[in-house]
Amino acid sequence: MENTRRYAIITLLLLLAVLTYILPSIYRGGEQARSENPSLGYVEYVEVTVLIDNHPDSSLRSPWGISLYVETSNRTILFDAGPDPEALKLNAEKLGIDLSSIDLVVISHEHGDHIQGLRYLAEVNRGLRVYVPNGMSESCKGWIRGLGFDLVEVEETTVISEGVAIVGELYGPPYEQALAVNVKGLGLIVLVGCSHPGVDRLVAKAKEDLKSQPYAVIGGFHLSGASSDKIREVVENLVELGLKKVYPIHCSGEKFRSYLKENYPEVYGEGRVGFKILFN
């Protein structure tokens, strides 16, 4: 009798342990990203097109936000989706980009000027895989799932394709991740959304986690209104990281753009909606 009771107690404890492990993932309802390749590898080229940016071009819409179309030798990716589904649709059409055929989406963080364009994408590419930070709010994750996407949560830096990796989340707030593409002979091309945790921190994490030298960074740096000392500090950090090109768009701020252009003209890169950059 005593043995039977002991066996029942042990069985119950084991069951509770198993449930403790699996229930959080069931509750989240989201797949956890795992590296598809054990090492980063490289691609022959990457072309980045600025689909949405609040720095205007006469023929394209330029609402406050960011969306970058990324084409490599083996993947097409949308990095962030901007704030306006109609602007995303019209700009993609004018630039000759078919978003119904892209392979995947990476969302940097949950703010509306980076995700609302997903509503257009849901119309033309429902079921698409969308990678989001693990720390994204449950309400935002639920909204993305509700659009019909296959949501994948990312916590650690994860290789998702040959030469392509998601740089694991850092806390800003909010939680934010980046995208890195390793181009043969150049190094990492790092794409950032708003860089709430710091663009220099995100690039440094990409360099450390992926054991590769960063070559360029493009995106929003969240430095509008930053002090001159802060801007100087970030620029110096990026240069010390070995970056050859820096493309400040979206929320980077005119002071940052001016300081970088004046002090490091060889590093400064222009960027605005409709701009295309080929790295090869």
Structure, described:
With about 280 residues, the protein is an alpha/beta fold. The chain has two domains: about 1-30; about 35-280, 4-Layer Sandwich (Metallo-beta-lactamase, Chain A), CATH 3.60.15. The chain has eight helices and 14 strands. It has helices spanning about 1-30, 85-95, 110-115, 120-125, 140-145, 200-210, 230-240, 255-265, and strands spanning about 30, 45-55, 65-70, 75-80, 105, 130-135, 150-155, 160, 165-170, 175-185, 185-190, 215-220, 245-250, 275-280. The strands form two sheets. An eight-stranded mixed beta sheet has the order 1-7-6-5-4-3-2-14. It has a six-stranded mixed beta sheet with strand order 8-9-10-11-12-13, covered by helices on one side. β11, α6 and β12 (about 215-220) form a beta-alpha-beta unit. The chain starts with a helix and ends with a strand. The model is unreliable at about 15-30 (pLDDT under 50).
